[in-house]
Write a structure and sequence with these properties.
CATH architecture of the largest domain: 3-Layer(aba) Sandwich
Order of helices and strands: EHEEHEHEHEHEEHEHHHHEHEEHEHEEEE
Helix content: 25-40%
Shape: globular
Number of helices: 13
CATH class of the largest domain: Alpha Beta
Radius of gyration: 23 Å
CATH superfamily of the largest domain: Dihydrofolate Reductase, subunit A
CATH topology of the largest domain: Dihydrofolate Reductase, subunit A
Number of domains: 2
Strand order of the largest sheet: 12-11-10-9-13-7-14-17-16
Structural class: alpha/beta
Largest sheet: 9 strands, mixed
Length: 429
Amino acid sequence: MKNSALSGQLPLNFYQELWKQSLLAIGRTAPNPPVATIITYQNQIIASGATEPPGLRHAEIVALDEIDHQIHKYPNHLYLYVTLEPCSTYGRTKPCVLRINHYQDRIKKIFVENFDPYLNKTGIKYLIEKGFDVEVQSFFKKPHFALEPFFSVIKEKRPIYHIKVATMPDGLMGVSNKSISITGKLGKFITMLMRAKVDAVIVGPGTTSIDLPSLDLREINLDDEELAVVEKSMDYLNKNTQLLYNDYPKVYYDEFLRGLILFYKDIYKNFQYFNYQPKRILILGRYFSNFINFFKKQKQLTEKTNQPFYFLIQEKYKNDYPLEKLDKENIRIFPNLDSENFFSELNQFLIEIDVHRALIESGERFFSVSFPHLTKNDKIYWIENTSFEENQSEELPLSERKHWFFSNYDLILKDKFSLGHLNLYALTV
């Protein structure tokens, strides 16, 4: 077994297909890792796959099933690329190495990007003992964006957080005690793509009580003009990303944010096929008058989507809520949002409910509270809607306006591009 550092030698089209398959896998596989696979013949991709929801096929099996339908065309000299060591243990499915072993005379070489910490290299050892040529190397030139949460849960005992903020050009992101729409239709389109690619969506107490959000995943139907904007951005990102890929590590680009646009058609088709919905987590502050109706609507949504919701009630407000009338499985009593223990308990809770990647749709206060707990692996995705004119917010009282400026925080800009009237930014701490 070779342990190579041949970063950057993966052909661009191989990388792009693994990138797409990785993006399709995330948000639907936890607690399993989101793995991607391609199989090639004479430098052409002939099959690919992404891990399906728990209990269904792993990425390698998806690709091998595709090969079986055309094996007469490609009898041997196949190369298999997989982003994580093939499993060698029984779980909901049989070990992938057993299926791979059926192709001893056809697969010439196997490339593996990462060892699986749970396997102690037993998957690799099995394949080598069966006579396969196995090489471990980095495909992506940088940490694998799809597998980061899987490794974070194992090593750091915490999920990865994506924090989405939306503002007008002047930084306005909301007002006190009033629901206003900042993102616009294209912004909602991006938000839904994000929801499709995470395990859970989290909102703070202000958003919960003022907006009464559903947090479910819904398809946003764009008109011809809006679709043209997206297609134009796809063309730009395809060309631009190729240049950036060739220049890495001199430059950086965010594979998650760019992938949402580049592969949005596949994402929509994918979440419709698997009927995917994220878990919904709502943090509660003071009791609000229509809480009971809101609770009932969330229950109805769970019956429709088959995904749970959770209300996290801060300790100081627990006596305000009629807990005896609520279903216990939906309620958790948590430390106060500004306490030191809130995020450590949130990390533990999310892991317990199989959340590896969480989207926080944040207001100004929730962001300020979250910021000290972020790590370099977390991402802040800022949607700036430039279609708003300054005079559109003049009617809003100055004392009630909530603003957010990334320059007020110690943040690093990792990527930026435009989608029509939206500026999209990827930032880290």
